[in-house]
Amino acid sequence: MKRFLRGEYSWLIKIVFSLLSLILTVRFALPVTELIDKGCSLFIIEKSEESRTEAPLKADPEEENTVPEKKEDTPSFYETPEDVEEFEKEYLETFGKTSVSGNTKEVFFRTSGATDTAGGIHIKNTTATKKPDFEELIKEGPDISIKNKSDPTVLIYHTHTTESYLLSDNGVFYEDYKTRSTDSAKNMIRVGDEICRVLSENGIGYIHDTGIYDEVYEGAYSRSRVSVEKHLSENPTIQIVLDVHRDAIYYSDTEHAKPTAEIDGRKAAQLMIITGAEEGYITDFPNWENNLKFALLFQKTAEESYEGLMKPLYFCQRKYNMDLGVCSLLLETGTDANTLDEAMYSGYLTGKVLSEIINAYEEK
Predict the structure, then answer these.
(1) Are the C-beta atoms of residues 314 and 43 closer than 8 Å to each other?
(2) Is the confidence at residue 296, as pLDDT, over 90?
(3) Which of 336, 342, 339 shows the shortest CA–CA distance to 309?
(4) pTM, whole model, 2 decimals?
(5) Is the pLDDT of residue 83 over 50?
(6) Most buried of 21, 93, 186, 344, CB within 10 angstroms?
């Protein structure tokens, strides 16, 4: 997803575009570009896959289906892998002598744009008609049924698989370096691998779908949907479905935002949950409220364990295949200004949060 920050007169632009968005949504029930107020600034999120034209479906993707042996005495920790250190050296040697396009700006989002606070967490509600009692939903918790966590319990996939990151935290980005890659060691698959490593260490069964769905960007959600439906049909024990992405926030062509939190002395790419609602042109989404309950649980668990990791939870009029599964979310892991290492560390922390939730919900 790409967002562009408008400069001065943002208050006037916000009013005009908010009115246009409301008119189009209510009267014509058509997808519109979504306007999100972040403090005094305006961002545009360009995500409307439901309305995009289809590309031919790819062959069945590769996948990793693991039912791990429980490892009670194996401590989990994160340290930068050797290959990631080598990637940084090669990156600086290759691109360090080329033209610099701009700077990365390290930022920390905690309450920015939030409309609600409940249970110590912050929520950005951009729906037109939904006014949930977030405190009550936190108390109720999601409907999750886990009889044996070693059965496939979590599905991780990546609709925008080729999204990737910078390879050095040197404060700049280069004209010739593109944050898109089919290399699974550098794109979203690598972040998913880190999530699954932690699940495995906690004896939790998972499926990591490593198919590439966005070599042709149009129709990526339709293509990933086919695979998600297949996994859920073949593995009815799956309770949690995460579509793991990275974001992009541009203040200008030469300044890109790098949402960063320091967790236990190490930089982590901040996470943002997207959870949707059935509203307006978004139909056939009966499980949206259970998704929201799970999103609130994840957000609260993460903030209590790793304060500052989460940006405000984004509750919106969108679906993005979240109508599939009982606890289904889209998770943005940093932006294209974060480093691969920071994103992998956040993947590790995501695995820790999921493990904590699953251990609490497994039937004893």
Answers:
(1) no
(2) yes
(3) 342
(4) 0.82
(5) yes
(6) 344
| Identity of residue 134 | F
As a whole number of Å, the CA-based R_g of the chain is 20
Per-residue pLDDT, averaged over 159-179, amounts to 98
Task: Name residue, tokens 């977030």.
Answer: 134
Taking the C-alpha atoms of residue 194 and residue 188, their distance in angstroms, rounded to an integer, is: 10
Give the domain ranges of the chain: 1-46, 49-361
DSSP for 265-313 reads TEEEEPEEEEEE--BTTB-S-TTHHHHHHHHHHHHHHHHHHSTT-BPPE
Question: What gap in Å lies between CA 364 and CA 360, rounded to an integer?
Answer: 9
Residue 88 carries which side chain, given as an amino acid letter? Answer: E
Q: How far apart are CA 103 and CA 41, in angstroms?
A: 19
Amino acid letter, residue 215? E
Nearest to 246 by CA among 180, 164, 353, 329: 164
Q: With a cut of 50, say whether residue 303 has pLDDT above it.
A: yes
DSSP 27: I
Say how far apart CA 5 and CA 153 lie, in whole Å.
39
Does residue 60 register a pLDDT over 90?
Answer: no
Residue 78: both structure tokens together: 């994160």
Identity of the residue numbered 317: Q
Place of tokens 């070693």: 150
Summarize the confidence of residues 342-362 as an average pLDDT.
Answer: 98
pLDDT at site 76: 61
CATH of domain 49-361: 3.40.630.40
- Across the chain, what does the average pLDDT equal? 85
Section 304-311 average pLDDT: 98
pLDDT score of 73:
39
Please, what sign has the CA dihedral across residues 23, 27, 32, 36? positive
Residue 330: CA atoms inside 13 Å, Cβ hemisphere, count? 26
